[in-house]
Amino acid sequence: MIRARFYWLVVCVGFSLLGQAQGWDSSYRSTYYDQKLTLFRLLPDTEGEIIFLGNSITDIGEWAEIWQNPRVKNRGISGDITFGVLARLDEVLSARPAKIFVMIGVNDIARNIPDSVILHNYRRIIEQVQRFSPQTRIIFQSVLPTNDEFKPFKNHYGKDDHIRSVNAGLRSLCEESKVDYIDLYSRFLDASGKLDKRYTNDGLHLNGAGYMHWKALLIEQKLMP
Fold first, then answer.
1. What is the pLDDT of residues 154-206, one digit of tens each?
2. Which pLDDT does position 23 carry in this prediction?
3. Please, are residues 161 and 110 in contact by the beta-carbon 8 Å criterion?
4. How many domains does the chain have?
């Protein structure tokens, strides 16, 4: 895993330089990222872990309590992007988890990182899990919709075509890689095609009803008991 970590740090640095040249930002390090990751690296591994991996939408969820299961671990970091997930994937895989639920990409989209780069990173995530923890079941969850009737996250709103394009590419990649894909996007939409106000109070993140809806969808798909 040390070799994998070094490899992905090199790849991420390379993409960061490319991004700067192309006018988009692939940086992922922050004080909060480092605070969370240093803690994750010190927490004990548990046999049969079920990991929820992603950005703030994952980070906010109280997953062990939602599922009433101490084996369920939260590995969300607010503000994270696909590059940040790749750079810390060795920690996620250290316990050889039973399942990893991945939701990542909306912050990449907010930064206008190209679809091709996001999908490339999705592919690398899948390859690394399959290489270093082949018994782990990967469940990729679609990027959720947003709602521009709110104000706080203007860079995230109005990117519906980009979100749909990334989700379509992710679905195809998962089919190709024989990885589970769940379409949460369409199940969080309102009649006007935006993130339903029943599930959010800022147009990007979920409220309590949103997390319970998410839970119900995973149960419906028989991905969690």
1. 999 999 999 999 999 999 999 999 999 999 999 999 999 999 999 999 999 99
2. 72
3. no
4. 1
What are the b/e assignments for 201-225, b being 16+ CB within 10 Å? eebbbbeeebbebbeebbeeeebbe
DSSP state of 189: B
Q: Which domain holds residue 58?
A: 2-143+154-171
Q: pTM of the entire structure?
A: 0.91
Q: What angle do CA 53, 105, 148 make, to 5 degrees?
A: 120
Residue 97 amino acid letter: P
- State how far the Cα of 109 lies from the Cα of 185, in Å rounded to an integer: 15
CATH, residue 91? 3.40.50.1110
Whole-number pLDDT of residue 24: 87
Judge whether 64 lies within some domain. Answer: yes
